């Protein structure tokens, strides 16, 4: 019999992978109504490239991109209305994951919802559109497994690769807050709860 892996894996100083941390929370029930209110869409980067990941948001602020740049916005540009509220259960999950990783008092005001279909990827980037880097980023993986790339604060450093499964949570903050990260092209598969896709939630203190 294989011994269970450690529940916490340090990726770097300030960065922790919490295996299965979200499994005890019902995250999925809230998802469909949120995406009905603010549908997934493929954003365009300032450089004019259409992203392969489809995105939406919930919370007081949402991350958006267009030819004018990346930024947080109070309103969904598709509807002109505020983003749907962040479910309390999602906020609490993010705060408890942050606390588990050593970041007390995390109060996310933005949750970016990413959908990856087979082949979708996210290029290496830093999360740097938030106003205050003292709060961590909390990332919840759902559905199909993905290869998460996690590097250092130097773009030229080759990132490490981690396989993220349904329910895994990664928290990065402190010295890792501006680490480069991304997602390798999603392999095809079928997840019992989410089908042929991966959903990632990233919680931020943006405002
Ligand atoms: C992100 O960097 O915003 C998403 C990371 C992920 O999908 O795991
Ligand atoms: Fe990111």
Low-confidence residue ranges: 1-5
Strand order of the largest sheet: 1-2-11-8-13-6-3
CATH-assigned homologous superfamily: Alpha-ketoglutarate-dependent dioxygenase AlkB-like
Structural class designation: mainly beta
> Which hetero compounds are present in the coordinates?
succinic acid, fe (ii) ion
CATH architecture verdict? Sandwich
How many H/I helical runs?
A: 2
Helix content: under 10%
Tell me the β content.
Answer: 25-35%
How many E-type strands? 13
| Highest CATH level, the class | Mainly Beta
CATH topology: Jelly Rolls
Biggest β-sheet strands, sense, barrel: 7 strands, antiparallel
Mean pLDDT: 96
Summarize, please.
It is built from two helices and 13 strands. The strands form three sheets. A seven-stranded antiparallel sheet has the order 1-2-11-8-13-6-3, covered by helices on one side.
Question: How would you explain this protein's 3D organization?
Answer:
The chain has 207 residues and is mainly β. It has one domain (8-204): Jelly Rolls, CATH 2.60.120. Helix content is 10%, strand content 32%. It has two helices and 13 strands, in the order ββαβββαββββββββ. A seven-stranded antiparallel sheet has the order 1-2-11-8-13-6-3, with helices on one face. Strand 1 (8-12) and strand 2 form a beta hairpin. Mean pLDDT is 96; it is low at 1-5. Bound molecules: succinic acid and fe (ii) ion. Succinic acid binds next to strand 6, strand 12 and strand 13.
